[in-house]
Design brief:
Radius of gyration: 21 Å
Number of strands: 12
Distance between the termini: 62 Å
Order of helices and strands: EHHEHEHEHHEHEHEEHEHEEEHHHHH
Shape: globular
Length: about 425
């Protein structure tokens, strides 16, 4: 494939940006977390392809196209996997060099999501020098983390993750934490929150684990974790849900209790000091500014996923052939991101059942992520989020505090004044 020209790229003619989550090593990972929804993509989506790895040509095409498609003065590149650090520092050094080549005067930043186990001195030096924002996946203290987050030999990973976090601190790399809330840690909200806070996570993301897998027909087929697939994992209903979810998945009532307990800890002492993504998003919505997280937006469609070979999908949670929007080697990323396929996918989120349309917290939830909408309402109408009870409880619980904080902000005062 010919090398692209070295000149900068023209500014995008569109006023609305879109985001791309780049997966330069696809689903390849050095861990084998029991709950991971992405590991199987390597064999189901690209069978027989070998080790997935973004080529230099695809990296350059992506860099040029993404910069060309963004209308703002700041452009954020987000890298995920699988485990992107398997590609080594050299890959990301090339990525940064290409960004500088095509930036055309704009400010470019990078965000890297990692399990943290491979972060050594060279990574620390590079991430600090290039000012990467690093997200580290950790599910709490050792006993709550190691139950599900094991390596490919079935060994615990907490100590390696903590070593990576210490490396980031030593090199003064800005980092935040991503915690999957699952069956093992959901009943320990205070323990998880206090642990992350003490370890210096100034910004926390709590992601509910909700995964469904069809009951396997072939008992003889081996699962990822050794035992026959039919015996390894029995799917069980959670909190009386109409659909079956994986045993590791969180229950709606449990997740609602987790969120409210963390919020009550945060609101008393940590506003303005510790940032929890969901709480920041909620304050924006109480201020009438709309959701800054696609999960609670009125529409989807502006958060695309890029696979290692240039395939672009409508969403990271919908990396299936039916939701493939194109390949950036055949179509420009701008045309894909602003195309009819992405628009249709985004508009479909607004199709809500009556129980959602009449809900008093709809302005904050907007029906949740379409991935979770597999429950039928009492009237039998489909499309209700599995996590509806959790979010209804949480948003109702925080309403008085959010009203007060919104009033403070409108009056020109910091939201942290609520702690007085």
């Amino acid at each position: 494939m010919p090398t692209l020209p070295a000149a900068g790229v023209p500014r995008a003619p569109w006023s609305q940006p879109f985001h791309v989550l780049a997966k330069p090593i696809g689903a390849r990972c050095n861990l084998d977390c029991r709950y991971c929804f992405y590991l199987d993509k390597e064999t189901t989506l690209y069978p027989g392809l070998g080790v997935p790895r973004m080529s230099d040509a695809t990296l350059e095409r992506f860099t040029r196209d993404y910069l060309a498609a963004q209308p703002g003065e700041e452009v954020v590149f987000s890298w995920q996997g699988g485990e992107p650090t398997l590609l080594g520092v050299e890959f990301f050094a090339r990525a940064v060099a290409l960004q500088r080549r095509y930036a055309a005067g704009r400010r470019v930043t990078n965000a890297l999501q990692t399990n943290g186990t491979l972060l050594d001195a060279s990574w620390g030096e590079f991430l600090a020098r290039e000012k990467f924002l690093v997200g580290v996946s950790i599910d709490g203290p050792r006993t709550l983390h190691d139950g599900y987050r094991t390596d490919q030999a079935g060994q615990p990973t907490w100590e390696k993750v903590m070593r990576g976090i210490r490396r980031l601190k030593k090199h003064r790399v800005e980092f935040n934490t991503l915690t999957v809330v699952h069956r093992r840690n959901v009943r320990h909200a205070r323990v998880v929150y206090e642990f992350l806070r003490e370890e210096g996570s100034g910004f926390m993301q709590f992601i509910p684990l909700v995964e469904r897998r069809p009951l396997p027909m072939e008992a003889a087929a081996g699962g990822r974790h050794g035992a026959p697939a039919g015996l390894r994992e029995r799917l069980v209903p959670a909190d009386g849900a109409a659909e079956e979810v994986t045993r590791e998945s969180v229950g709606p009532a449990q997740f609602g209790a987790f969120l409210t307990e963390v919020f009550d800890l945060w609101i008393r002492r940590d506003v303005g000091r510790t940032f929890v993504q969901l709480f920041d998003v909620a304050l924006n919505m109480w201020l009438g500014l709309g959701a800054t997280l696609c999960t609670f937006g009125e529409r989807c469609g502006n958060s695309l996923a890029l696979e290692h070979n240039g395939d672009v999908f409508a969403c990271d949670h919908f990396v299936f052939p039916a939701h493939r929007l194109g390949n950036l080697h055949a179509t420009s990323l701008a045309d894909i991101g602003h195309g009819a396929g992405a628009a249709r996918f985004g508009a479909a989120k607004a199709d809500l059942p009556r129980v959602c349309r009449e809900c008093r917290v709809r302005f904050a939830c907007h029906g949740d992520c379409p991935k979770h909408r597999f429950i039928a309402a009492n009237e039998g109408e489909p499309g209700v989020s599995y996590l509806c009870p959790a979010y209804r409880r949480f948003f109702t619980h925080i309403d008085p505090a959010m009203r007060r904080m919104a009033a403070l902000v409108r009056a020109g005062r910091p939201a942290a004044d609520i702690m007085r």
